Amino acid sequence: MGRRELLAGGVALAGVAAGGAFALGGWNPLEREGDVPAFDLESLEAPGSAAGTITVPERGRVTVLELFATWCGVCAELMVPLGTVYDEFGADVQFVSVTNEPLGRTITREDVASWWADHDGRWSLAHDADLELTSALEATSVPYSVVLDETNAVVWAESGYKSVEALRAPITAALEG
User: Fold this and answer.
1) Above 70 in pLDDT, residue 14?
2) Are 84 and 59 within one domain?
């Protein structure tokens, strides 16, 4: 047996083992090293959000996080479906949109609050100044949507635009446990 065949066989075996573990509930690729730790982020004064500090994610509650940037056109388009699911689940779920833009340089808190109001934001708005939450979520692009269960484990994460249905399904699943 050649080296190439041996390597291909090993890769195939690993794939079968991973698929079997996932199917039997022994491994989930969304699970990270433990739950996402809670971070105290600066919350911004904007519609639906008060200036101060917010703990994200909130343990004991399903949390929906949306990482965004004001320069991102897809982030702006995503505000409509986010608003729809917020109206549906906002009483039962912690909703927080988070920007990690360098506030005070090319963009101000007021610029973010104005963008938020222009795009009908009406839930908590926060700033991840040190990129700690962004790093913990392993987010590498915006928009980046995350649903965490009551134990702060990531149950769903996806980049890019999402429909109302695509957002609703993991929130419903997390609420149902």
Assistant:
1) no
2) yes
- The count of residues in the chain is 177
The reported pTM is 0.81
The enclosing H or E element of 96 equals: strand 94-99
Which two tokens mark 154?
């990531």
Q: How many domains does the chain have?
A: 2
Sorted by sequence, the CB contacts under 8 Å of residue 33 that are 6+ apart come out as none
Instruction: Report how far residue 32's alpha carbon sits from residue 36's, in angstroms, rounded to the nearest whole number.
Output: 8
User: Mind listing the pLDDT tens digit for each residue in 46-93?
Assistant: 999 999 999 999 999 999 999 999 999 999 999 999 999 999 999 999
Token readout for 167 is: 């957002």
Q: What is the DSSP-derived secondary structure letter of residue 38?
A: P
Q: Do 154 and 140 fall into the same domain?
A: yes
Cross-strand pairs, 67: 98, 144
- The whole domain housing 26 covers 1-30
